[in-house]
Amino acid sequence: MSNLQVSTTYILTHMGLIFFLYPSDVIDSTNEAQWLPVLTGFVFHLLIIFVYLKGLRYFQGENIVNILIKKNKVVAWAVLLPVLLYLSWIMILAVRAFSEVLSIAFLSNTPLWILISLLLLVPGFMILHGRIGGLLRLSVMFSSLFVIPIVFVLATSFQNVDWHYLFPLWPGPRALHFLTHPSFFKSLFAYTGGFLLLGFLPSYTAYKPKAIFWGSLVILPSYLIAVYVPVLTLGEESARQLQFPYLFIVDTISINWLMFDRINVFLLLSLVAFCMFFIAVTMFQILEIIRLGIKDISPNFLVPIIIIYSLIICLFIPDWKTVDLLFQWNTPLRIYVACVTPVLVLAIGWLHARKLKRELKNT
């Protein structure tokens, strides 16, 4: 059961990130064969998971904070401070970005501060009353509730596609030009937003790495669909002009036999749940770093502080252009955390294993 809970948790933390900024970032990064940046990002995603899990396996039952603190406090904080900054940054941006999406989509008369408050208070409530065990169980419930609506929306979003826009399948001479485009590196947020959680779970539940890799394969079609449905429906040039291309396509779908006028209600309600879940999981990681690495403060005191602090910063972000700019500024920190953290955990684990072998030989 723990493997199922961890894999569904991993899937849900990524599903809330795929359908908003990711399609426009990938489409901006290349003029053809969009599958190439999608699969490149996915391979990078698998690689960092493999290295990260390989390092964690050397320390059975210990989370990443305890592993680093016990080995070397200087090295630990060289890793944990950027991680803490990164997690705080993406949580605030996720709250601010999704509140903007909700306001644009169907709550235009609702003040933005109310939407921001709800996106912080509900995850805070999840953490205080369920902790990580409650979140793991909640992931299974969410997946059972929302998998049918999500699959239904993904399937019906192909309603108006023109398959001629799929070509050329094979990229031209400048196939790897997207690797120099800032939008491609910004799109990696959809791959790296949830992998750090795997390092915080060993203290609470045991899971097999195989469950994570299967979970990653499950969400691969969502990455491709989120990018290709706008391209196949509107063409690459028209899709590039849209802020949220996939949401726009879903909003144009018409199904006569459906009692709802707008099918995007299914998608957005599901994504609201997934986004709140992602915020709750990110908040849990911030709590763990502060409580295990700095001072063991009660969550009943710490969670309200995090909520108030995040709310204030969100209110100081004036508009969507600033949100997009902050996502772009976050790219170097994102790449640093995604590359350095797994490699360092693996290196520490390897040295730890060698030390244990020497001690066994000496005895």
- Given the helix and strand composition, which structural class is it? mainly alpha
| Radius of gyration using CA atoms only | 21 Å
Give the SSE order as H and E letters: HHHHHHHHHHHHHHH
The whole-number mean of residue pLDDT values reads: 86
Share of β-strand residues: under 5%
Low-confidence stretches: none
**What percent of residues adopt helix (DSSP H or I)?**
over 70%
Number of strands: 0
Task: Please state the overall shape, judged from the principal axes of the Cα atoms.
Answer: globular
In whole angstroms, the N-to-C terminal distance is 39 Å
Which sheet architecture does the biggest sheet show? none
Summed up, the helix count is 15
Protein architecture, described:
Helices cover 75% and strands 0% of the residues. By secondary structure, the protein is an all-alpha fold. The longest helix is centred in the middle third of the chain and has 45 residues. The model has no long low-confidence stretch (mean pLDDT 86).
Short synopsis of the structure:
The chain is built from 15 helices and no strands.
Note the topology:
Blueprint: H1 2-18, H2 21-29, H3 35-56, H4 64-71, H5 73-105, H6 112-156, H7 182-187, H8 189-192, H9 209-234, H10 236-240, H11 245-251, H12 264-294, H13 299-316, H14 320-329, H15 331-362
List its salient traits:
globular, 75% helix, 363 residues, 15 helices, single chain, mainly alpha
